[in-house]
Structure formats: structure tokens, C-alpha cells
Design goal:
This protein is of the alpha/beta class and 336 residues long. The protein contains eleven helices and 13 strands. Strand 2, helix 2 and strand 3 form a beta-alpha-beta unit. It is globular. The structure holds NADP nicotinamide-adenine-dinucleotide phosphate.
Amino acid sequence: MARVLVTGGSGFLAGQLVAALLARGEAVHASVRDPAAGARLQARLAAAGIDPQRLRLFTARLEDDAGWDAAVAGCDRVLHVASPFPARLPRDPDALLPAARGGTLRVLHAAARAGVRRVVLTSSFAAVGYGHPERAAPFGARDWSSLDGPGITAYVRAKTLAEQAAWTLHARLGQPFELVAVNPVLIVGPPPPGPLAASLRLVRGLLRTPLPLLPRLCYGVVDVRDVADLHLRALAHPQAPGRRFIASAGEFLWLAQLARHVRAHAGRRGPVRELPDALARLLLRLDPGLRPLAGDLSRWRGADSTPARALLGWQPRGVAQVLADCADGLIRWTPG
Ligand SMILES: NC(=O)c1ccc[n+]([C@@H]2O[C@H](COP(=O)([O-])OP(=O)(O)OC[C@H]3O[C@@H](n4cnc5c(N)ncnc54)[C@H](OP(=O)(O)O)[C@@H]3O)[C@@H](O)[C@H]2O)c1
């Protein structure tokens, strides 16, 4: 039973994974939350010239038990990618938990019942490097976001609690399968046709805004194709189980630096300026979902992806290439 379940197959990263698995001849199960999402995935595969014959679609929602046993039946590996990543963050800090944490537990329970051999969980740098005092050392696999600290949005909270719940359940069930976590920073890259993922909307905003006045917020970036490659390495490598792998192309950049890169590549002229923190704090207050980001202003951070490179042989594109490819893709992007 050499099959892989990819959860949330219609998503930006999951679609890349489904395409990569099919292209190398694997049989793939993909869960989608509704038939329209399945149609989006089929269209994306067709646009990439990928034969969908070895793909089976299953409908399952992260908030419901229904559908998960059927989706995982016959699979020996699971890539649990699905999780809410809303473009607009909710005001309620717990709003994303039923899908993020609850959904992760549902998928892991179903994997254990089905006798799956390995699960790779798409976690996030959000579960690693937030809520801490500023420090010079980059964050690594041993670090966990501190949910009592500053800068904790509903998304950071959901990804941290979901990954922690996964490791706890895995231990409590007696490690019925091998578990690996991948923790990417902001995932960008060439957008597929169809709706833009939240991370790409952020970059499109940087490209399009006529008067870029940006808060001093700091992000790492990584290309979606490299994140997919890291997942596939984590799915196969004998030394991957039990580890967390941070996926980052390199140095973190302030939003204004990110904007300068993509705008220069797209031939957009004009200055890009940073908002003074006091003004940014006032503006962030206007959006309850973004308000916690005030605690992150002018806070530099970095991430150490050495284990992915050294142990798994991962060789991602560099930051400049990632941003150039993303800008090119966004210029050409069509909504569907
Ligand atoms: N993009 C980033 O910058 C980034 C960085 C680090 C980690 N991650 C993680 O990477 C994973 C993929 O993110 P992405 O960037 O590819 O975002 P995305 O395109 O929004 O993908 C998220 C997927 O999860 C599905 N999903 C969301 N809520 C669901 C629910 N309640 N029930 C069933 N499915 C649900 C979505 O389904 P629909 O297509 O129907 O909406 C979509 O397929 C997520 O776990 C995210 O947290 C992303």
C-alpha cells in the first residue's frame, strides 16, 4: 500500500506536493473540504500538465470526524498540510483552534487507526520563534513560541498548540507511526492559477501599493517548491523521524526590504519607507486580528535551517531568487 494522503490538497503548498508526488509516479489521496476545492486542484494539475490518473479525492473538514478514515485508508504515509491560514486574522485568539489543533488530532488518530508508517506535519516557524525577547541567536528546532509573550496572533497560537498537541498525542499513543514536523517561514514563490494564498497576498500588497509605508516587521521567506521538496525528504529520510525541520531560504528581512526587492524586480520605481513604530502601533490597533503584531515591531529574528540542509541534503533557492521568482509569478498570475 504505497500511497500518500495529502490533506488540504487544494492549498498553495499542498497542491505543489500533490503535483510533485504524482510526477514521480506515486499514488496520492488528497483531502479537500468541498467539491469546489477538488475542482481547483484538478485545474491546477491540468495547467501543470500533470496526469491525475493516480489521484483520488476525498472530502473531509478539519472540524469534523467524517471522512478522515476513508481518506487515509490504504495509505502508508501522510502529509498533514491543511490548516486555516486566513488572509484576515480573527479577533478571537482561539478561533482557529478547532480546525488547526482539532484537525491535526483527527488526522493523527485516523493515521494511527489505518496503520500509517510516517506522518509529516506542516507546522510553521510561527510555532518556533514568536513571543520571545529579541535575541541575536537564530531560532532552532528546540525553540517553541512563547504564547504569553508579545506578538502572538491567533495564527501563531493555533500553529503552536497544534504542533504541541501532535507531539503529545504521538507520545501518548505509544508512537504508532513516525512523526516529523516541517516549520517553514513565510512561503512564497510562483502562484498557481486560482485564489492567492494569504502569504502571496502579502507580497502582492507590497508590489501593488502605490505608496509603500510599511511597519518594521521582520520575515523570513522560502519558495513553495523548496518547502515541498523538504516535505518529501522528511517523508523518506531514515533519520527524519522525531525531528522538527525549519525551512528558510536565508536571512530574514524587514517588510520594507522585501518590498524593495520585489518592486525593483518588477520595475516599480519610487521610494519605500518604514512607518515609525508609534504610528504603526496606532494603525495596527484598528484591526483586532493584527493588533498583537504591535508587540513585534522592530523585533529582529532569524531561523536556523542547518539541520534540513545538513541531515536531509536540502538545498533551497536563496532569498533574492525566491523573491524574484515570486515577483515574476505575481506579475503573470491570473485568478483562475
Ligand atoms: N504560506 C505560508 O507562509 C506558511 C508558512 C508556514 C506554514 N504554513 C502552513 O502551511 C500549510 C499550507 O498553507 P498554505 O500557505 O498552502 O495555505 P492555503 O493555500 O490556505 O492552504 C491551506 C489548506 O488548508 C485547507 N483548510 C483550511 N481550513 C480547513 C478546514 N477547516 N477543513 C479542511 N481544510 C481546510 C484549505 O482548504 P481550502 O482550499 O478549501 O481553503 C487549504 O487547502 C498550513 O498548515 C500553513 O499553516 C504556511
